[in-house]
Amino acid sequence: MTRPSHMLGLIALLMVRKCVGSPVDHIGVVGDDSGNDNGVMMDHHINQMVVVKGDFVYQVGEVVSQVVEQELAGCHLVLVDTTIQSPVFSMMIRQFGRTRESVTVVEAWRLFLLTQVVSNESVNDWHNGDRRFKDQLARDQLLHGLWGDATLTCRALIIHFDNNNKDLFFMFLEWCEVWRRPEIPVVVVGEREGVETVLLHHSLRNTIHTLYLALHDLPLHRGQRLSLNTRSRENDIIRGGDDEQVWVYRRCLYCEKGEAQVQLLHRGNLTYGLQHSVNLFPERLNNFFRHTFQLVVNQYLPFIDIELDKEPGTPVAPRDSLNTRMLHIIASSLNFTYVLRQPLDEKWGTPLDDGNWTGIVGVLQHQKADFCLDLTLTETRNRVVDHSRVYNYDPFVILSGKVSSFPRHLALTRPFEGEVWMAIIVCTSFMGVILWLLQKAWSWASGELGVSLVPTVFHTWGIMLLEPIPTLPTNSTGRVLVGWWLLTCAIIATGYRSSLIAHLSVQSKYSPINTFQDLLDRDGWSWGANELVGTNFLYFNGSSDPVIQEIYKHMEIFETEEWLERVLAGGFSFLFLKTLIKTEVAKHSTDRSGNAPYHISTTEYPIFGGNVWGFRQVTSAMFS
Description:
This protein is of the alpha/beta class. The protein folds into four domains: about 5-270, 3-Layer(aba) Sandwich (Rossmann fold), CATH 3.40.50; about 305-390, Periplasmic binding protein-like II (D-Maltodextrin-Binding Protein, domain 2, 3-Layer(aba) Sandwich), CATH 3.40.190; about 410-505; about 510-610, Periplasmic binding protein-like II (D-Maltodextrin-Binding Protein, domain 2).
Protein backbone atom coordinates (compact mmCIF):
# COMPACT_ATOMS: atom_id res chain seq x y z
CA MET A 1 0.00 0.00 0.00
CA THR A 2 1.31 3.46 -0.88
CA ARG A 3 1.79 6.21 1.67
CA PRO A 4 -1.19 8.27 0.44
CA SER A 5 -3.33 5.15 0.76
CA HIS A 6 -2.15 4.69 4.38
CA MET A 7 -3.00 8.29 5.19
CA LEU A 8 -6.38 7.98 3.49
CA GLY A 9 -7.30 4.98 5.58
CA LEU A 10 -6.03 6.58 8.81
CA ILE A 11 -7.88 9.85 8.30
CA ALA A 12 -11.03 8.01 7.26
CA LEU A 13 -10.96 5.91 10.40
CA LEU A 14 -10.57 9.08 12.49
CA MET A 15 -13.58 10.63 10.82
CA VAL A 16 -15.99 8.08 12.29
CA ARG A 17 -16.26 7.32 15.96
CA LYS A 18 -18.73 4.82 17.27
CA CYS A 19 -20.34 5.77 20.58
CA VAL A 20 -22.22 3.11 22.50
CA GLY A 21 -24.12 4.41 25.53
CA SER A 22 -21.64 7.26 25.94
CA PRO A 23 -22.43 10.51 27.74
CA VAL A 24 -22.66 13.53 25.54
CA ASP A 25 -19.34 15.03 26.57
CA HIS A 26 -17.59 12.01 25.02
CA ILE A 27 -19.31 12.23 21.65
CA GLY A 28 -17.25 13.92 19.02
CA VAL A 29 -15.13 13.68 15.92
CA VAL A 30 -11.41 14.16 16.13
CA GLY A 31 -10.08 17.04 14.08
CA ASP A 32 -6.54 18.11 13.25
CA ASP A 33 -3.83 19.09 15.74
CA SER A 34 -3.26 22.63 14.50
CA GLY A 35 -5.07 24.24 17.40
CA ASN A 36 -7.45 26.27 15.23
CA ASP A 37 -11.24 26.04 15.20
CA ASN A 38 -11.19 22.95 13.06
CA GLY A 39 -9.30 21.14 15.77
CA VAL A 40 -11.86 21.73 18.49
CA MET A 41 -13.93 18.63 19.19
CA MET A 42 -17.64 18.84 18.62
CA ASP A 43 -18.50 18.00 22.22
CA HIS A 44 -16.65 21.12 23.37
CA HIS A 45 -19.08 23.30 21.45
CA ILE A 46 -22.00 21.35 22.84
CA ASN A 47 -20.92 21.76 26.45
CA GLN A 48 -20.45 25.51 26.01
CA MET A 49 -23.82 26.01 24.27
CA VAL A 50 -26.75 27.38 26.20
CA VAL A 51 -30.07 26.03 25.02
CA VAL A 52 -33.43 27.38 26.09
CA LYS A 53 -36.61 25.41 25.63
CA GLY A 54 -38.58 26.92 22.78
CA ASP A 55 -35.62 28.23 20.79
CA PHE A 56 -35.03 27.07 17.22
CA VAL A 57 -32.20 24.63 17.87
CA TYR A 58 -34.03 22.94 20.70
CA GLN A 59 -37.24 22.69 18.69
CA VAL A 60 -35.46 21.10 15.72
CA GLY A 61 -33.82 18.59 18.01
CA GLU A 62 -37.18 17.79 19.59
CA VAL A 63 -38.81 17.19 16.20
CA VAL A 64 -36.01 14.86 15.10
CA SER A 65 -36.19 13.06 18.45
CA GLN A 66 -39.93 12.68 17.97
CA VAL A 67 -39.35 11.01 14.60
CA VAL A 68 -36.83 8.65 16.16
CA GLU A 69 -39.03 7.72 19.10
CA GLN A 70 -42.07 7.26 16.90
CA GLU A 71 -40.52 5.19 14.09
CA LEU A 72 -36.91 4.28 14.94
CA ALA A 73 -37.04 3.19 18.56
CA GLY A 74 -34.31 0.66 19.31
CA CYS A 75 -32.37 1.38 16.10
CA HIS A 76 -28.65 2.04 15.81
CA LEU A 77 -28.42 5.69 14.68
CA VAL A 78 -25.84 7.09 12.28
CA LEU A 79 -25.73 10.91 12.54
CA VAL A 80 -24.13 12.62 9.53
CA ASP A 81 -23.34 16.34 9.21
CA THR A 82 -22.55 17.95 5.85
CA THR A 83 -22.24 21.44 7.35
CA ILE A 84 -19.37 22.90 9.34
CA GLN A 85 -20.04 22.81 13.08
CA SER A 86 -23.79 23.33 12.83
CA PRO A 87 -25.54 24.05 16.15
CA VAL A 88 -28.55 22.07 14.92
CA PHE A 89 -26.39 18.99 14.41
CA SER A 90 -24.69 19.60 17.77
CA MET A 91 -28.06 19.59 19.48
CA MET A 92 -29.01 16.29 17.83
CA ILE A 93 -25.77 14.73 19.03
CA ARG A 94 -26.40 15.96 22.54
CA GLN A 95 -29.95 14.68 22.73
CA PHE A 96 -29.30 11.29 21.15
CA GLY A 97 -26.07 10.80 23.09
CA ARG A 98 -28.00 10.92 26.33
CA THR A 99 -30.97 8.81 25.33
CA ARG A 100 -29.71 6.30 22.76
CA GLU A 101 -27.66 3.18 23.38
CA SER A 102 -25.93 3.00 19.99
CA VAL A 103 -24.91 6.09 18.00
CA THR A 104 -22.29 6.71 15.32
CA VAL A 105 -21.34 10.32 14.51
CA VAL A 106 -19.88 11.33 11.14
CA GLU A 107 -18.75 14.75 9.98
CA ALA A 108 -18.86 14.17 6.23
CA TRP A 109 -17.12 17.43 5.39
CA ARG A 110 -14.04 16.30 7.32
CA LEU A 111 -14.24 12.80 5.88
CA PHE A 112 -13.95 13.99 2.29
CA LEU A 113 -12.31 17.43 2.38
CA LEU A 114 -9.34 16.37 4.51
CA THR A 115 -8.72 13.22 2.50
CA GLN A 116 -8.92 15.41 -0.59
CA VAL A 117 -6.03 17.50 0.72
CA VAL A 118 -3.93 14.47 1.59
CA SER A 119 -4.41 12.69 -1.72
CA ASN A 120 -4.30 15.92 -3.76
CA GLU A 121 -7.58 15.00 -5.49
CA SER A 122 -10.46 17.29 -6.37
CA VAL A 123 -14.05 16.75 -5.32
CA ASN A 124 -14.89 15.77 -8.88
CA ASP A 125 -12.20 13.09 -8.78
CA TRP A 126 -13.83 11.70 -5.68
CA HIS A 127 -17.25 11.81 -7.26
CA ASN A 128 -16.40 10.33 -10.65
CA GLY A 129 -13.52 7.98 -9.95
CA ASP A 130 -13.02 4.96 -7.79
CA ARG A 131 -9.94 6.35 -6.12
CA ARG A 132 -11.46 7.16 -2.76
CA PHE A 133 -10.01 4.16 -1.00
CA LYS A 134 -7.21 2.21 -2.57
CA ASP A 135 -7.08 -0.04 0.44
CA GLN A 136 -10.30 -2.07 0.40
CA LEU A 137 -9.60 -3.42 3.87
CA ALA A 138 -9.55 0.05 5.38
CA ARG A 139 -12.80 0.86 3.59
CA ASP A 140 -14.48 -2.29 4.92
CA GLN A 141 -13.35 -1.52 8.45
CA LEU A 142 -14.71 2.00 8.22
CA LEU A 143 -18.06 0.83 6.85
CA HIS A 144 -18.28 -1.74 9.63
CA GLY A 145 -17.76 1.02 12.18
CA LEU A 146 -20.36 3.14 10.44
CA TRP A 147 -23.17 0.58 10.35
CA GLY A 148 -22.39 -1.11 13.63
CA ASP A 149 -22.29 -4.78 14.53
CA ALA A 150 -23.88 -7.31 12.18
CA THR A 151 -26.15 -8.49 15.00
CA LEU A 152 -28.04 -5.19 15.00
CA THR A 153 -31.57 -5.70 13.75
CA CYS A 154 -32.30 -2.05 12.99
CA ARG A 155 -30.21 0.84 11.67
CA ALA A 156 -31.18 4.37 10.65
CA LEU A 157 -29.35 7.23 8.90
CA ILE A 158 -30.00 10.82 10.05
CA ILE A 159 -28.31 13.45 7.87
CA HIS A 160 -28.06 17.21 8.30
CA PHE A 161 -28.21 18.52 4.74
CA ASP A 162 -26.70 21.79 3.53
CA ASN A 163 -27.57 23.04 0.04
CA ASN A 164 -24.16 24.65 -0.21
CA ASN A 165 -22.53 21.24 0.25
CA LYS A 166 -24.99 19.04 -1.63
CA ASP A 167 -22.19 17.39 -3.63
CA LEU A 168 -20.67 16.34 -0.32
CA PHE A 169 -24.02 14.92 0.75
CA PHE A 170 -24.38 12.77 -2.35
CA MET A 171 -20.73 11.70 -2.22
CA PHE A 172 -21.33 10.34 1.27
CA LEU A 173 -24.44 8.41 0.19
CA GLU A 174 -22.51 6.79 -2.66
CA TRP A 175 -19.51 6.07 -0.45
CA CYS A 176 -21.49 4.26 2.26
CA GLU A 177 -23.53 2.44 -0.43
CA VAL A 178 -26.96 3.27 0.90
CA TRP A 179 -28.41 1.75 -2.26
CA ARG A 180 -27.22 -1.67 -1.05
CA ARG A 181 -29.23 -1.31 2.18
CA PRO A 182 -32.83 -0.60 1.17
CA GLU A 183 -34.15 -1.55 4.59
CA ILE A 184 -32.26 1.30 6.35
CA PRO A 185 -34.51 4.38 6.89
CA VAL A 186 -32.96 7.72 5.90
CA VAL A 187 -34.04 10.94 7.64
CA VAL A 188 -32.73 14.21 6.18
CA VAL A 189 -32.89 17.56 7.99
CA GLY A 190 -32.46 20.54 5.68
CA GLU A 191 -34.00 23.47 3.86
CA ARG A 192 -37.12 23.37 1.71
CA GLU A 193 -35.10 24.31 -1.33
CA GLY A 194 -33.39 20.91 -1.47
CA VAL A 195 -36.39 18.62 -1.02
CA GLU A 196 -36.75 17.26 -4.54
CA THR A 197 -33.00 17.35 -5.19
CA VAL A 198 -32.45 14.99 -2.28
CA LEU A 199 -35.49 12.73 -2.38
CA LEU A 200 -35.29 12.08 -6.13
CA HIS A 201 -31.54 11.52 -6.21
CA HIS A 202 -30.20 8.28 -7.72
CA SER A 203 -28.36 7.39 -4.49
CA LEU A 204 -31.70 6.78 -2.75
CA ARG A 205 -33.18 4.75 -5.61
CA ASN A 206 -33.58 1.63 -3.48
CA THR A 207 -34.27 3.11 -0.05
CA ILE A 208 -37.74 2.12 1.06
CA HIS A 209 -38.25 4.72 3.82
CA THR A 210 -36.87 8.23 3.19
CA LEU A 211 -38.02 11.34 5.11
CA TYR A 212 -37.08 14.97 4.62
CA LEU A 213 -37.69 17.43 7.47
CA ALA A 214 -37.75 20.79 5.68
CA LEU A 215 -37.14 23.80 7.95
CA HIS A 216 -37.92 27.49 7.43
CA ASP A 217 -35.09 30.07 7.32
CA LEU A 218 -32.46 27.51 8.25
CA PRO A 219 -29.58 29.53 6.67
CA LEU A 220 -30.03 32.27 9.30
CA HIS A 221 -29.54 29.83 12.12
CA ARG A 222 -26.75 27.96 10.42
CA GLY A 223 -24.75 31.13 10.06
CA GLN A 224 -24.69 31.94 13.77
CA ARG A 225 -21.67 30.82 15.79
CA LEU A 226 -21.73 29.94 19.48
CA SER A 227 -19.49 31.80 21.84
CA LEU A 228 -17.03 29.90 23.96
CA ASN A 229 -17.21 32.58 26.66
CA THR A 230 -19.70 31.51 29.28
CA ARG A 231 -20.27 35.12 30.40
CA SER A 232 -21.81 36.00 27.05
CA ARG A 233 -24.05 32.95 26.74
CA GLU A 234 -27.25 34.94 27.05
CA ASN A 235 -26.27 37.03 24.04
CA ASP A 236 -25.66 33.90 21.99
CA ILE A 237 -28.93 32.11 22.68
CA ILE A 238 -30.43 31.03 19.43
CA ARG A 239 -34.09 31.93 19.29
CA GLY A 240 -36.68 31.11 16.66
CA GLY A 241 -39.81 33.01 15.76
CA ASP A 242 -43.31 31.88 16.59
CA ASP A 243 -43.97 31.16 12.93
CA GLU A 244 -41.15 28.61 12.52
CA GLN A 245 -42.56 25.93 10.26
CA VAL A 246 -41.59 22.34 9.50
CA TRP A 247 -42.61 20.35 6.42
CA VAL A 248 -42.28 16.57 6.39
CA TYR A 249 -41.82 15.04 2.95
CA ARG A 250 -41.28 11.44 1.94
CA ARG A 251 -40.03 9.67 -1.15
CA CYS A 252 -42.66 7.32 -2.52
CA LEU A 253 -40.81 4.79 -4.65
CA TYR A 254 -43.49 4.09 -7.26
CA CYS A 255 -46.36 6.52 -6.73
CA GLU A 256 -45.78 8.56 -9.93
CA LYS A 257 -47.04 5.97 -12.41
CA GLY A 258 -44.42 3.52 -11.24
CA GLU A 259 -41.66 6.09 -10.68
CA ALA A 260 -40.47 7.97 -7.59
CA GLN A 261 -42.52 10.88 -6.28
CA VAL A 262 -42.14 13.45 -3.49
CA GLN A 263 -45.15 13.60 -1.17
CA LEU A 264 -45.96 16.01 1.65
CA LEU A 265 -46.90 14.08 4.79
CA HIS A 266 -47.25 16.88 7.34
CA ARG A 267 -46.95 20.63 7.77
CA GLY A 268 -46.80 22.10 11.23
CA ASN A 269 -45.13 24.39 13.72
CA LEU A 270 -41.86 23.51 15.42
CA THR A 271 -43.30 24.62 18.72
CA TYR A 272 -45.96 21.91 18.70
CA GLY A 273 -43.89 19.21 17.00
CA LEU A 274 -45.36 16.42 14.91
CA GLN A 275 -48.79 14.96 15.26
CA HIS A 276 -48.72 11.40 16.55
CA SER A 277 -51.41 10.47 14.06
CA VAL A 278 -49.04 11.08 11.14
CA ASN A 279 -47.72 7.85 9.64
CA LEU A 280 -44.16 8.78 8.70
CA PHE A 281 -43.28 5.47 7.03
CA PRO A 282 -46.42 4.37 5.14
CA GLU A 283 -44.50 2.47 2.44
CA ARG A 284 -45.65 -1.16 2.34
CA LEU A 285 -44.61 -2.17 -1.19
CA ASN A 286 -47.85 -4.02 -1.89
CA ASN A 287 -48.56 -1.80 -4.89
CA PHE A 288 -45.95 -0.87 -7.51
CA PHE A 289 -48.35 1.44 -9.41
CA ARG A 290 -47.64 -0.16 -12.80
CA HIS A 291 -43.87 0.14 -12.42
CA THR A 292 -42.06 -1.69 -15.23
CA PHE A 293 -39.48 -4.21 -14.05
CA GLN A 294 -36.70 -5.36 -16.37
CA LEU A 295 -36.34 -9.16 -16.48
CA VAL A 296 -33.53 -11.22 -17.98
CA VAL A 297 -34.36 -14.80 -19.01
CA ASN A 298 -33.20 -17.83 -20.96
CA GLN A 299 -35.36 -20.69 -22.15
CA TYR A 300 -35.40 -23.59 -19.73
CA LEU A 301 -38.24 -26.01 -20.35
CA PRO A 302 -40.62 -26.68 -18.74
CA PHE A 303 -39.98 -23.86 -16.26
CA ILE A 304 -39.63 -20.94 -18.67
CA ASP A 305 -40.49 -20.77 -22.35
CA ILE A 306 -39.94 -17.71 -24.56
CA GLU A 307 -39.76 -16.79 -28.23
CA LEU A 308 -36.32 -17.56 -29.61
CA ASP A 309 -36.49 -15.70 -32.93
CA LYS A 310 -35.46 -12.33 -31.49
CA GLU A 311 -32.02 -10.77 -31.26
CA PRO A 312 -30.36 -11.11 -27.84
CA GLY A 313 -30.97 -8.02 -25.72
CA THR A 314 -34.30 -7.17 -27.38
CA PRO A 315 -37.67 -7.74 -25.69
CA VAL A 316 -39.03 -11.27 -26.06
CA ALA A 317 -42.55 -12.55 -25.59
CA PRO A 318 -43.16 -15.20 -22.92
CA ARG A 319 -44.92 -18.45 -23.70
CA ASP A 320 -47.07 -20.48 -21.38
CA SER A 321 -44.88 -22.16 -18.76
CA LEU A 322 -44.58 -22.56 -15.01
CA ASN A 323 -42.62 -19.36 -14.35
CA THR A 324 -44.66 -17.17 -16.67
CA ARG A 325 -47.83 -18.27 -14.89
CA MET A 326 -46.30 -17.42 -11.52
CA LEU A 327 -45.06 -14.09 -12.88
CA HIS A 328 -48.50 -13.19 -14.22
CA ILE A 329 -50.16 -13.90 -10.87
CA ILE A 330 -47.55 -11.93 -8.89
CA ALA A 331 -47.64 -8.99 -11.32
CA SER A 332 -51.42 -8.82 -11.08
CA SER A 333 -51.31 -8.95 -7.29
CA LEU A 334 -48.57 -6.32 -6.85
CA ASN A 335 -49.67 -4.17 -9.80
CA PHE A 336 -46.51 -4.02 -11.90
CA THR A 337 -45.58 -4.65 -15.51
CA TYR A 338 -42.47 -6.27 -16.94
CA VAL A 339 -40.26 -6.59 -20.00
CA LEU A 340 -38.35 -9.81 -20.75
CA ARG A 341 -34.97 -9.87 -22.48
CA GLN A 342 -32.31 -12.47 -23.12
CA PRO A 343 -28.71 -11.71 -22.12
CA LEU A 344 -26.48 -10.68 -25.00
CA ASP A 345 -24.33 -13.82 -24.71
CA GLU A 346 -27.39 -16.06 -24.08
CA LYS A 347 -25.60 -17.72 -21.16
CA TRP A 348 -26.69 -18.45 -17.63
CA GLY A 349 -23.59 -17.25 -15.84
CA THR A 350 -20.06 -18.40 -15.11
CA PRO A 351 -17.37 -16.45 -13.22
CA LEU A 352 -14.50 -14.70 -14.97
CA ASP A 353 -11.01 -14.15 -13.61
CA ASP A 354 -11.65 -10.45 -12.90
CA GLY A 355 -14.60 -11.12 -10.58
CA ASN A 356 -17.30 -10.41 -13.18
CA TRP A 357 -19.84 -12.93 -14.40
CA THR A 358 -21.25 -13.81 -17.81
CA GLY A 359 -24.86 -14.30 -18.82
CA ILE A 360 -27.84 -13.71 -16.58
CA VAL A 361 -25.73 -13.53 -13.42
CA GLY A 362 -23.55 -10.83 -14.98
CA VAL A 363 -26.59 -8.76 -15.98
CA LEU A 364 -27.92 -8.88 -12.41
CA GLN A 365 -24.46 -8.30 -10.95
CA HIS A 366 -24.12 -5.01 -12.84
CA GLN A 367 -27.67 -3.89 -12.01
CA LYS A 368 -28.79 -3.95 -15.67
CA ALA A 369 -31.97 -5.89 -14.85
CA ASP A 370 -34.17 -6.26 -11.78
CA PHE A 371 -34.58 -10.03 -11.64
CA CYS A 372 -34.68 -13.26 -13.63
CA LEU A 373 -37.29 -15.99 -13.69
CA ASP A 374 -35.06 -19.01 -13.26
CA LEU A 375 -31.57 -19.51 -11.94
CA THR A 376 -29.81 -22.45 -10.35
CA LEU A 377 -28.52 -21.62 -6.90
CA THR A 378 -24.83 -21.99 -6.04
CA GLU A 379 -22.61 -20.62 -3.30
CA THR A 380 -20.58 -18.44 -5.67
CA ARG A 381 -23.64 -16.97 -7.39
CA ASN A 382 -25.15 -16.19 -4.02
CA ARG A 383 -22.32 -13.70 -3.41
CA VAL A 384 -23.27 -11.41 -6.31
CA VAL A 385 -27.07 -11.80 -6.63
CA ASP A 386 -30.00 -12.20 -4.27
CA HIS A 387 -32.50 -14.99 -4.69
CA SER A 388 -35.92 -16.22 -3.72
CA ARG A 389 -36.71 -19.45 -1.94
CA VAL A 390 -36.01 -22.67 -3.81
CA TYR A 391 -39.17 -23.65 -5.66
CA ASN A 392 -37.84 -26.73 -7.47
CA TYR A 393 -35.11 -29.28 -6.84
CA ASP A 394 -33.67 -30.62 -10.11
CA PRO A 395 -30.79 -33.09 -9.65
CA PHE A 396 -28.57 -34.80 -12.23
CA VAL A 397 -29.58 -38.39 -13.09
CA ILE A 398 -28.48 -41.16 -15.47
CA LEU A 399 -30.81 -42.41 -18.19
CA SER A 400 -30.14 -45.93 -19.48
CA GLY A 401 -32.04 -48.57 -21.40
CA LYS A 402 -34.63 -50.67 -19.64
CA VAL A 403 -32.96 -53.41 -17.63
CA SER A 404 -33.34 -56.69 -19.58
CA SER A 405 -33.63 -60.27 -18.31
CA PHE A 406 -30.96 -62.92 -18.67
CA PRO A 407 -31.43 -65.38 -21.59
CA ARG A 408 -33.61 -68.35 -20.56
CA HIS A 409 -31.06 -70.92 -21.73
CA LEU A 410 -28.70 -69.64 -19.06
CA ALA A 411 -31.15 -70.66 -16.34
CA LEU A 412 -29.39 -74.05 -16.09
CA THR A 413 -26.20 -72.44 -14.83
CA ARG A 414 -27.63 -69.56 -12.74
CA PRO A 415 -28.44 -71.63 -9.59
CA PHE A 416 -24.71 -71.65 -8.73
CA GLU A 417 -22.06 -69.02 -9.13
CA GLY A 418 -19.04 -69.74 -11.29
CA GLU A 419 -16.84 -70.44 -8.29
CA VAL A 420 -19.27 -73.12 -7.05
CA TRP A 421 -19.40 -74.80 -10.46
CA MET A 422 -15.62 -74.84 -10.63
CA ALA A 423 -15.41 -76.38 -7.16
CA ILE A 424 -17.91 -79.14 -8.13
CA ILE A 425 -15.96 -80.03 -11.26
CA VAL A 426 -12.63 -80.19 -9.46
CA CYS A 427 -13.94 -82.06 -6.43
CA THR A 428 -15.83 -84.66 -8.49
CA SER A 429 -12.82 -85.42 -10.66
CA PHE A 430 -10.53 -85.48 -7.63
CA MET A 431 -12.93 -87.82 -5.82
CA GLY A 432 -12.76 -90.28 -8.74
CA VAL A 433 -8.95 -90.27 -8.56
CA ILE A 434 -8.97 -90.86 -4.79
CA LEU A 435 -11.43 -93.74 -5.13
CA TRP A 436 -9.28 -95.29 -7.88
CA LEU A 437 -6.10 -95.02 -5.77
CA LEU A 438 -7.86 -96.56 -2.80
CA GLN A 439 -9.08 -99.50 -4.90
CA LYS A 440 -5.64 -99.86 -6.45
CA ALA A 441 -4.01 -100.09 -3.04
CA TRP A 442 -6.57 -102.62 -1.83
CA SER A 443 -6.08 -104.88 -4.90
CA TRP A 444 -2.30 -104.75 -4.44
CA ALA A 445 -2.61 -105.76 -0.78
CA SER A 446 -5.22 -108.48 -1.33
CA GLY A 447 -3.96 -109.73 -4.67
CA GLU A 448 -7.33 -109.21 -6.29
CA LEU A 449 -7.93 -107.75 -9.72
CA GLY A 450 -7.79 -103.94 -9.68
CA VAL A 451 -9.99 -101.37 -11.50
CA SER A 452 -8.99 -98.86 -14.15
CA LEU A 453 -8.97 -95.03 -13.66
CA VAL A 454 -11.47 -93.94 -16.32
CA PRO A 455 -14.41 -96.13 -15.21
CA THR A 456 -13.84 -95.01 -11.60
CA VAL A 457 -13.98 -91.29 -12.52
CA PHE A 458 -17.08 -91.87 -14.64
CA HIS A 459 -18.74 -93.69 -11.75
CA THR A 460 -17.99 -90.70 -9.50
CA TRP A 461 -19.62 -88.34 -12.01
CA GLY A 462 -22.55 -90.72 -12.31
CA ILE A 463 -23.13 -90.45 -8.57
CA MET A 464 -23.05 -86.60 -8.88
CA LEU A 465 -25.68 -86.82 -11.63
CA LEU A 466 -27.76 -89.21 -9.48
CA GLU A 467 -27.22 -92.14 -11.83
CA PRO A 468 -27.40 -95.74 -10.43
CA ILE A 469 -24.03 -97.20 -9.36
CA PRO A 470 -23.21 -100.33 -11.45
CA THR A 471 -20.75 -101.82 -8.93
CA LEU A 472 -19.72 -101.03 -5.37
CA PRO A 473 -16.24 -101.41 -3.92
CA THR A 474 -15.67 -104.78 -2.30
CA ASN A 475 -13.72 -103.38 0.67
CA SER A 476 -15.31 -101.49 3.55
CA THR A 477 -13.10 -98.41 3.17
CA GLY A 478 -14.20 -97.85 -0.41
CA ARG A 479 -17.85 -98.35 0.53
CA VAL A 480 -17.62 -95.73 3.33
CA LEU A 481 -16.03 -93.24 0.92
CA VAL A 482 -18.74 -93.84 -1.70
CA GLY A 483 -21.42 -93.45 0.99
CA TRP A 484 -20.14 -90.02 2.05
CA TRP A 485 -19.92 -89.01 -1.61
CA LEU A 486 -23.53 -90.09 -2.16
CA LEU A 487 -24.64 -87.87 0.76
CA THR A 488 -22.67 -84.91 -0.58
CA CYS A 489 -24.12 -85.29 -4.07
CA ALA A 490 -27.66 -85.53 -2.66
CA ILE A 491 -27.21 -82.21 -0.82
CA ILE A 492 -25.77 -80.50 -3.91
CA ALA A 493 -28.50 -81.86 -6.17
CA THR A 494 -31.26 -80.76 -3.80
CA GLY A 495 -29.86 -77.20 -3.63
CA TYR A 496 -29.49 -77.03 -7.39
CA ARG A 497 -33.03 -78.20 -8.09
CA SER A 498 -34.65 -75.72 -5.69
CA SER A 499 -32.58 -72.84 -7.05
CA LEU A 500 -33.32 -73.84 -10.64
CA ILE A 501 -37.06 -73.83 -9.97
CA ALA A 502 -36.78 -70.33 -8.46
CA HIS A 503 -34.83 -68.97 -11.44
CA LEU A 504 -37.27 -70.50 -13.90
CA SER A 505 -40.20 -68.98 -12.01
CA VAL A 506 -38.74 -65.43 -11.72
CA GLN A 507 -36.33 -64.36 -14.41
CA SER A 508 -33.16 -62.63 -13.26
CA LYS A 509 -32.14 -59.29 -14.76
CA TYR A 510 -28.91 -57.44 -15.34
CA SER A 511 -27.99 -54.96 -12.60
CA PRO A 512 -29.18 -51.42 -13.47
CA ILE A 513 -26.90 -48.39 -13.81
CA ASN A 514 -27.54 -46.15 -10.81
CA THR A 515 -24.22 -44.40 -10.18
CA PHE A 516 -21.31 -42.89 -12.07
CA GLN A 517 -19.19 -45.76 -10.80
CA ASP A 518 -21.56 -48.23 -12.48
CA LEU A 519 -20.83 -46.52 -15.80
CA LEU A 520 -17.10 -46.88 -15.31
CA ASP A 521 -17.48 -50.54 -14.34
CA ARG A 522 -19.29 -51.47 -17.59
CA ASP A 523 -16.94 -52.69 -20.29
CA GLY A 524 -17.46 -50.99 -23.64
CA TRP A 525 -20.06 -48.60 -22.24
CA SER A 526 -20.31 -44.94 -23.32
CA TRP A 527 -22.22 -41.91 -22.06
CA GLY A 528 -23.03 -38.34 -23.01
CA ALA A 529 -24.98 -35.17 -22.17
CA ASN A 530 -26.27 -31.96 -23.68
CA GLU A 531 -23.88 -29.03 -23.81
CA LEU A 532 -22.82 -28.27 -20.25
CA VAL A 533 -23.34 -24.61 -19.37
CA GLY A 534 -23.69 -22.62 -16.17
CA THR A 535 -23.75 -24.68 -13.00
CA ASN A 536 -23.66 -27.96 -14.96
CA PHE A 537 -20.31 -26.99 -16.45
CA LEU A 538 -18.97 -25.73 -13.11
CA TYR A 539 -19.90 -29.00 -11.41
CA PHE A 540 -18.06 -31.32 -13.79
CA ASN A 541 -15.21 -29.00 -14.75
CA GLY A 542 -14.36 -27.98 -11.20
CA SER A 543 -14.87 -31.26 -9.34
CA SER A 544 -11.95 -32.88 -7.53
CA ASP A 545 -13.68 -36.30 -7.39
CA PRO A 546 -11.69 -38.72 -9.62
CA VAL A 547 -14.89 -40.56 -10.63
CA ILE A 548 -16.55 -37.34 -11.83
CA GLN A 549 -13.34 -36.29 -13.57
CA GLU A 550 -13.26 -39.60 -15.46
CA ILE A 551 -16.94 -39.25 -16.38
CA TYR A 552 -16.35 -35.71 -17.70
CA LYS A 553 -13.23 -36.78 -19.61
CA HIS A 554 -15.08 -39.35 -21.73
CA MET A 555 -18.41 -37.55 -22.02
CA GLU A 556 -19.99 -37.08 -25.46
CA ILE A 557 -21.86 -33.83 -26.17
CA PHE A 558 -25.21 -33.81 -28.00
CA GLU A 559 -27.01 -30.86 -29.58
CA THR A 560 -30.09 -32.79 -30.76
CA GLU A 561 -32.39 -35.42 -29.32
CA GLU A 562 -30.57 -38.33 -30.92
CA TRP A 563 -29.43 -39.40 -27.48
CA LEU A 564 -32.82 -41.05 -26.97
CA GLU A 565 -32.13 -43.41 -29.86
CA ARG A 566 -28.61 -44.08 -28.61
CA VAL A 567 -29.88 -45.04 -25.18
CA LEU A 568 -32.57 -47.27 -26.64
CA ALA A 569 -30.02 -49.07 -28.84
CA GLY A 570 -28.06 -50.10 -25.74
CA GLY A 571 -24.51 -49.68 -24.52
CA PHE A 572 -25.06 -45.96 -23.88
CA SER A 573 -26.34 -43.76 -21.03
CA PHE A 574 -27.40 -40.12 -21.00
CA LEU A 575 -26.61 -37.77 -18.12
CA PHE A 576 -28.63 -34.63 -17.47
CA LEU A 577 -31.20 -32.87 -15.29
CA LYS A 578 -34.04 -35.07 -14.11
CA THR A 579 -36.83 -32.71 -15.21
CA LEU A 580 -35.58 -32.45 -18.78
CA ILE A 581 -35.01 -36.20 -19.08
CA LYS A 582 -38.47 -37.05 -17.77
CA THR A 583 -40.02 -34.45 -20.08
CA GLU A 584 -38.31 -35.77 -23.21
CA VAL A 585 -39.01 -39.41 -22.34
CA ALA A 586 -42.68 -38.65 -21.72
CA LYS A 587 -42.89 -36.71 -24.99
CA HIS A 588 -41.28 -39.28 -27.30
CA SER A 589 -41.19 -42.75 -25.77
CA THR A 590 -44.05 -43.28 -23.33
CA ASP A 591 -47.01 -45.48 -24.28
CA ARG A 592 -50.62 -45.06 -23.24
CA SER A 593 -50.03 -46.98 -20.04
CA GLY A 594 -47.20 -44.68 -19.02
CA ASN A 595 -44.47 -47.23 -19.65
CA ALA A 596 -41.17 -46.29 -21.27
CA PRO A 597 -38.20 -48.47 -22.29
CA TYR A 598 -35.80 -46.49 -20.11
CA HIS A 599 -34.37 -46.64 -16.63
CA ILE A 600 -33.66 -43.50 -14.57
CA SER A 601 -31.00 -43.97 -11.92
CA THR A 602 -32.08 -44.10 -8.30
CA THR A 603 -29.00 -42.09 -7.32
CA GLU A 604 -29.49 -38.35 -7.79
CA TYR A 605 -26.59 -35.90 -7.91
CA PRO A 606 -27.45 -32.49 -6.39
CA ILE A 607 -25.08 -30.35 -8.43
CA PHE A 608 -26.75 -27.11 -7.26
CA GLY A 609 -29.07 -25.91 -4.52
CA GLY A 610 -32.23 -25.81 -6.62
CA ASN A 611 -34.16 -23.48 -8.91
CA VAL A 612 -34.82 -19.94 -7.70
CA TRP A 613 -35.67 -16.49 -9.01
CA GLY A 614 -32.54 -14.36 -9.06
CA PHE A 615 -32.60 -10.66 -8.14
CA ARG A 616 -30.09 -7.88 -8.47
CA GLN A 617 -28.84 -7.12 -5.00
CA VAL A 618 -31.40 -5.21 -2.87
CA THR A 619 -34.32 -5.83 -5.26
CA SER A 620 -35.42 -8.92 -3.32
CA ALA A 621 -36.02 -6.72 -0.26
CA MET A 622 -38.83 -5.01 -2.14
CA PHE A 623 -40.67 -8.32 -2.63
CA SER A 624 -40.13 -9.65 0.88
